Amino acid sequence: MTTYNLALIGFGGVNRALAELICDEPQRFASLGFELRVVAITDLAFGSLVQGDGIDLAAVLAMPRGTSFDGLPGGSSDPRNEDVIKNSPADIVVEATFTSPIDGEPAVSHVRWAIESGKHVVTTNKGPVALRGPELSKLAATNGVRFEYEGAVMSGTPVIRLAHKMLGGLELTAVQGILNGTSNYVLGRMEAGLRLDEAIAEAQDLGYAEADPTADIGGSDVRLKVAILANELLGASMNPSDVETTGIQDIKSDDVAKALASGHRWKLIGEARREADGRVVATVKPIALQADHPLAGISGATNAVSFTTDLLGAVTVSGPGAGRVETAYALISDIMAVNEFVKGAVRA
Ligand SMILES: NC(=O)c1ccc[n+]([C@@H]2O[C@H](COP(=O)([O-])OP(=O)(O)OC[C@H]3O[C@@H](n4cnc5c(N)ncnc54)[C@H](O)[C@@H]3O)[C@@H](O)[C@H]2O)c1
Ligand SMILES: N[C@@H](CCO)C(=O)O
Questions:
Q1: What's the whole-model pTM score?
Q2: Residue from 200, 244, 209 nearest 223 by CA
Q3: Residues with CB under 6 A from ligand 1
């Protein structure tokens, strides 16, 4: 059986959930035809750890946040991302640090270092994909490795790969949906009577929110996702700054209650659409949907995206849009794609 060595860059909610699955459920991977071994971990809070024979995941998962890897064999209190990414014996770099909606850093550099040193990259980080996606995919192709990022949109729910693989024979003219778990959860909790700040705190505890939740509430998280979908699926060359964006920060408990009373529900809707002249235009804005609208019933951290197609009309995918384990599954599906690529290369 093939063993893939992983370097986990960022050891927060998502990469810890992946480490737990690797530690607790090895049979899940054996049934996929490979084993996973974590040989390196870096994080601002822990430093870095490189152990070529495989890190004892149960032991590091038990370390409280803020404890240093310094003192462990191969450990340091410094994250040493560049050295670890370039020189550790990893086959696959798993990037799950903070998303920067401004320039995608430091994740863009992490991805580039990995690809340039011949390592595959799987990531849930929207920044590099939305801001540098085509350039990084091209670099990966040139270096004979994969750059996979299913978790950048709707966490583990298959959207990007599903659309590429299964909708490729259709003409897509628009994508529209609820693409942020935190804001959808928050709007639902406000319907239940919570204040905005109370609902955000709950979403943070549940692991849905970004490190800076203003990205979720202010719409910049959805803006990145809409740009990714427009570029991947509608053939646009869009920068996130091209997406006209309004968040839910100005929606008050009163607005939510009034909408409910009149049979409406506020939802943060992201959309990209190809116009008759071929231009792709994209927006993010809150809309009070009628209760019988197909997206009005999407509740909690669940997301949904609807593709407008020529032969099938609307095709809608719905599932978790956030969550630690749910997002770790996106990384697993990316590793499955890397495995297919590696096996294909061996056969060829
Ligand atoms: N949690 C979700 O539901 C979800 C869903 C989809 C995508 N994502 C994306 O996945 C990524 C990880 O999410 P998360 O929930 O694990 O976040 P998190 O905040 O729990 O963890 C991020 C970790 O990265 C570390 N980090 C930040 N900058 C670093 C650096 N320069 N070097 C080393 N470590 C660094 C932090 O210390 C933290 O432990 C984010 O980019 C997020 O946008 C998260
Ligand atoms: N913070 C994001 C994570 C998934 O990208 C959300 O709530 O949807």
A1: 0.97
A2: 244
A3: 9-14, 42-45, 79, 81, 96-99, 106, 124-126, 151, 155, 207-208, 210-211, 322-324, 327
